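User: I'm putting together notes for a lab meeting next week and I want to include a structural view of one of the chains we've been expressing. I don't have a solved structure, so I'd like a prediction I can at least talk through. The sequence is below, exactly as it appears in our construct file.
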Amino acid sequence: MIGKDICLNEIGHKISALFMVKQLRVRYAFNEYIYGECCNKSDANDEINDGNKDTMFRFTGDNSNIMVKESFEDIHYDKKALNYLLNSKQALKNNEVYTDDAIRLSFQLMTRAEPAKMVIETIKSLIAIKAADDEILIVDNNHTDVDLYQPLADFCAALDTKLNVHFYHIDAVAGFKAGALNLALGLMNPMCTHIVVVDSDYQALQHARASIAAAIQEYPHHALLQFPQFYRDAGRLEVHGELNHYFNYHLYRDFNRKRALSTGTYAVIQRMALIELGGWSGASITEDAQMGVLMHRQGLQTAFIPKVIATGLLPNTVGDLMSQRRRWIYGNMQVLNTYFSNHSLPLSKTSAPNSFSQRLGYMRAHLSQLSAWVNMTGIFIFLHICTLLIISGAMLANFDINFPLLLTPLYTVYAGYTLFLGRRLWAYCHDNAPLNQQMNGSDMPYFYQKLRAWLMHLNFWELGALSWLPVLWGREKPFICTPKQVYVRTRRTVWTANIAALPKLFFIINLITALMAAPFSPLYSPLIFVCAITVCMLKLWSAQIMLANYGYTESSNTVTADFVHNIHLDINNKSTRQEHSVLNDSVTSRKLSTSLQDNQIINT
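Assistant: Thanks for the context. Below is the predicted structure for the 604-residue chain, given as structure tokens.
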């Protein structure tokens, strides 16, 4: 948490950033009077001074990675602008809604060693939908591969400055993605009212900006508005259906929709609320879910807006998909692990104070969303393994024991498995995919499609049951970005990598159980044999669906990280609120890429 590193004790918008990369720490001093009332001034307008352009700066550097400080002279925050912000805050206090002109967005795009071509296409999609007063902030961080970030720097430097696109590269930022987002919070234009978090592969649809503005006007006092994730990959329908089950069914439910936690990309956040919260918390590797819980604890409101406004890319390999799911499970369980350590349970400002039913509603929503990728069958898996070990030991030692009696715990085990499978199948059968219908007309998913999405979900059975357990004894897990590069592979290497990445523990222990309880075994048990064979067949079927989605294709080997530096902006959207400037070959590139050396402290 960086809350104690944020102080709101100066007048005027004078934002400076202290970078100490040697200790891998990022610190901020926000001198915010408009958004923070800690100054307790009686007459705000009398205390506001004219903006000083020397206090506003951007970080620039040349190819030798030597840092310099440069005044950003084309931005002035004068008395008129500060009074505008003060009046805007007062209007919100008086329960007035945002006007369309008052909404100013900061699209914040965090990247780490991503393919330049993909990121540039995302930036182009944002330029096509942004308003004139909006900004786009790209922070490339935590890697030193110049070949990956230099094309981004050159592309952004060649853009017209009126587009308000700013690029930064930082070699090392502490706190995973939360650290980079806190860095962007210090670098963003303080005139912006809302932050829009954008993943590097999520291209905005044509109506994205209008939908965001409409949602802000509908929920003017909500600190967080979360839009759904959606995918544009051709094929991989079952992967798409399994991932979007969270939005189509889980988050779509009324009790979750009104108390939504953030899921990262296309989260629209009130800048004022985020600053008052203390910025992004690095206590969990799922900083988005952590932020949602902290907002509710402060009495802030959130909502899920079920409208698709952008599309992203699915993980490229089975291994990447498994790593992504482990990170979600682990991070959410980190949030849950400390959930009850704070005695101030969630409370909404619009409900009755200290209402017990209200608190239970928030707890239900939090536990529902944070445990969406988790299942509690881990205890049954441990009981299953222990039973097999005891039976095997007794048989090898030739003990005179009633062996059928040793199978008794397995009846409890398979009852637990059946309950888990039945509940998940029921949920998938009631998933009518409303988000898919937005994109594909009135098509309703057939039962067979729902069944295949459910079977795809069974590939993650072991992950949801066991991968979160190290959280209980305080083990830290590194933040692993889901790579977007696809390297040249052969059919054999793809198949081998897929088989290696698929979880196999559950299949193995059920196969052993089936052999122990088979008709030719002295421990023959018809019920346990049928249950074990059924689970094995379900796991094989789910693996077959996964391999069908991630099989070898020629087209999957065409994407690389290389990209030419001279890229021309092509904007076809003529219905935006501003006239966009296209690239001009004669424009002199401003080097906006930044690298901080370990022994440097900037603006101390």
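A couple of points you could mention at the meeting. The mean pLDDT is 75. The CA atoms of residues 333 and 468 lie 6 Å apart.

User: Perfect, that's what I needed.
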